[in-house]
Design a protein that fits this description.
Elements: H1 5-19, H2 21-33, H3 37-44, H4 54-68, E1 75-78, E2 87-91, E3 101-105, H5 120-129, H6 135-159, H7 163-166, H8 176-189, H9 191-204, H10 206-209, H11 211-218
Antiparallel strand pairs: 1-2, 2-3
Helix pairs in contact: 1-6, 2-5, 2-6, 3-5, 6-9
InterPro entries: PepSY-ass_TM
Organism: Pseudoalteromonas haloplanktis (Alteromonas haloplanktis)
Transmembrane segments: 12-36, 137-159, 180-210
Length: 234
């Protein structure tokens, strides 16, 4: 017997959400906690003191870089704010091709010796780099998971043809039906957020996912060209 369109959408909705549901839960959990990454880092590194005089601290950071980075063609200073207390300086030595060197400085321009933890930065990076695998493959995996979630959202709307009517139906002590009602209520309530957070997550890395389209449109090899995006390590 031939499946109806809604039946096929029901199958697609179920399996697209189940396959990578655990991964998406980890991405959403760490992404939510990453909103408080600076506060988490400060909690895990209480020895880092809040800088009171920003201008003085920036001048001291410049003096530090002039002294310690003679071979660096370029360096960057990230000033402190009310949430991010130390000054962060990073640079790359022109004689090396390794990672950027990073130094966290106090108000006097001295390096801060804090306990070895990345704090909230670990959570921020984990939610799209996954930490335990190469960054390139991790971002592709997260992107595929986000795409499947978008498919799950759209097919879920198609499957529930009475989605807004069912939103006001919540039956208790009905076993599986109660769980299904709760699922519908929660999904409809957060539907705009789910759509936007998934779509914008994919768009954020679209140059990586659709580099072939850029190559065809502009004749530029995006995959082999250098794109620099740096965030200081906490």
């Amino acid at each position: 017997m031939k499946l109806r369109f809604r039946d096929s959408m029901n199958w697609l909705h179920t399996w697209s959400c189940v396959v990578l549901g655990c991964l998406l839960f980890a991405v959403f959990l760490t992404g939510t906690l990453a909103y408080f990454q600076y506060e988490i880092t400060h909690w895990m590194q209480p020895e880092v003191e809040q800088i009171q005089h920003k201008d003085k601290a920036i001048n001291q950071a410049q003096a530090y870089l002039n002294t310690h980075t003679e071979n660096a063609p370029r360096w960057t200073i990230v000033p402190p704010n009310e949430r991010f207390s130390p000054i962060v300086a990073y640079w790359r030595d022109k004689n090396t091709t390794g990672r950027f060197s990073v130094a966290r400085l106090d108000e006097q321009g001295n390096e801060i010796n804090s306990r070895a933890t990345r704090g909230g930065e670990f959570l921020y990076r984990f939610h799209f780099d996954l930490h335990y695998m190469p960054v390139f493959y991790a971002r592709w995996l997260v992107g595929i998971a986000a795409m499947l979630m978008l498919v799950g959202i759209i097919t879920g709307i198609v499957v529930h043809k009475k989605i807004f009517k069912d939103f006001f139906t919540l039956q208790f002590n009905k076993g599986a039906k109660s769980w299904l009602n709760s699922h519908t209520v929660c999904s409809v309530l957060a539907l705009p957020f789910h759509i936007m957070i998934t779509y914008t997550g994919i768009v954020t890395l679209m140059l990586m996912y659709f580099s072939w389209a850029m190559n065809m449109g502009d004749g530029i090899d995006v995959a082999s060209s250098r794109h620099l995006a740096i965030k200081p390590q906490l």
